[in-house]
Amino acid sequence: MPVAADEVPGLLEQVRETADPKFGDYTATLAMPLAKRLRVKPRDLAEKLIARLNDSPDFTAVFEPIEGPVGPGFVNVRVRDDALARGVAAACGDARLGVLPLAQPETIVLDYSSPNVAKPMHVGHIRSTVIGDALARILRFRGHRVITDNHLGDWGTQFGMILWGWKHCREDAAYAADPTAELGRLYRLVRKVVDAKPEELAADPVAKELAAAHPEAGREVLLETAKLHEGDAENRKLWEEFMPVCRQEIERIYQRLDIEFDHTLGESFFQPLLHGVVEDLQASGLARESRGAIGVFLDGQETPLLIRKADGAFLYATTDLATIAWRAEHWRPDRILYIVDHRQSQHFQQVFATARSWGCRAAKQLAAMELVHIAFGTVLGEDGKPFKTRAGDTVGLEALLDEGVERAAAIVGEGEHARQGMDEAQRKAVAEAVGIGAIKYADLSQNRTTDYVFSFDKMLELKGNTAAYMQYAVARVEGIAGRGGIDREALRQQVAADPTAVELVDPRERRLALNVLRLAAVLEDVESDYRPNVLTAWLFELAGSFSSFYDALPVLKAEGRQRTTRLALADLTGRTLRQGLELLGIRVPKQM
RNA sequence: GCGCCCGUAGCUCAGCUGGAUAGAGCAGCGGACUUCUAAUCCGCAGGUCACAGGUUCGAAUCCUGUCGGGCGUACCA
Description:
four-stranded parallel β-sheet; 28 helices; RNA-binding; Gyrase A, domain 2
């Protein structure tokens, strides 16, 4: 058959799960396009293909013999029950649940979260943080060398605001009592003074008065920022004093979200390099002066990428370029992934294009590196507008987490008798896992490219496609093991050593087995489009097939091989669901 | 103006490198707890996939156009 070797992967892509079990487990659609090119009838081609497959011992070891093509030329296959059982047994005995580490791992840098210090974290940060963390965990689990870096905004105008506020309206007592809160207050106050709309200002007498007393506040704030950047001793000292306070505040939220970074190299870290970036780009002819500023003019771009303002200050494009070069030089990654909202897509397009053609020290590395902007949509309120409080402020991230946990706690408190035995500490841990899990899961289960409507009522429904549904399924597995006094480790060793101990009879056992063995394929799909929702969709399916299984088929009361089979399936499903949720950064309580 | 993204069930969304009757959840209706956690399960009902063309054996998916929405578009990040 004249098919070029490099076409094979594409053809194999045309094997997928069937839409309906009556067509078998998998279907291949490759006969139709291939037949067209070879100018033969699709069904004839499919017939030949089937004959060869049926003759191949490798094929028949795993699949039932194929009877013939269906419809225009579909080739439908069904996995042999004994082969499926062997797969379950093998996964049971494997710490990685049957997922082989990648043969060719890459070094991948992930850039996500990146809050501005000194500004309270708000809903706007949740998507980048949660999606980035999940992708980092998934890529790492697959076997890649992952480097996570939190590119903190620690050098921008917001510090000018805080410095100005510090000098004009600080309250020392408040700062002594709670520095974070006072700095937060100063930031919010000065931001209003500087760029609030008239109606917003009217609603805040303190800010209004301050604005009236300092009509030049906006300019003065920029001046404070500029002084900091120029190395002014007083501002620099204050910056050094404020930074740990701000970092601590952010760290507390990350701890609650179970998020850790390998590095936190903020904008300030790259600040000494910025001058060189501009000189370099000018020298290479990529950047030139225009209207007093310096920008990179790219073909097909209406506007330049500005790297230095007319007043001499650098911009975030400058920092981004410096950062890319630094990472290329020091980490030599194959890929850098930026998990940043979709509004910055043009910015990244320009930054990436500039970096690729930039002839700096790391030029070779830069040219070979894959730079990816992983964009996501805006978080909206239930009114379909950007998520704000009733007063019109952005919603603080911490308050959001509190509310999620609080609502979850109310639900944990009521209902099922099994929960009545839990002590206070357990309930609290469950509420935290369910509440935070719900918030993370709601975000991750949405296709990241679209805007998403934030609704506690929906995410804490605790039915349907929510974190709690999966957590509950795991708790049920734990319940079986606990109630039955099962030594799970021994069970795993037993079935791994003797796969014939597993025998799939009931269609629900079969469906569960087919589903639970898909983890590796699903993670591969997640990586190909950087979409965690592929993982959540599968977890939901898996938990669903487990719930049906659990509901209809007794496990502990079964006997002999049937009992072993069901125990093995339950154990494997529990572990797999737990692993999947952990890859999303979601905690899984043993009991709930 | 130009560029990017998006219009799928009453609501919130999957599905988008073309595949068989378009899927979930919620809401609605009807069933299932003396039996391993009912935060569950089983069933019913509900859609001209914005619209119009085109490519194809086959289109929610690819191409073109129209309408509607969001975002971005020179010195914020």
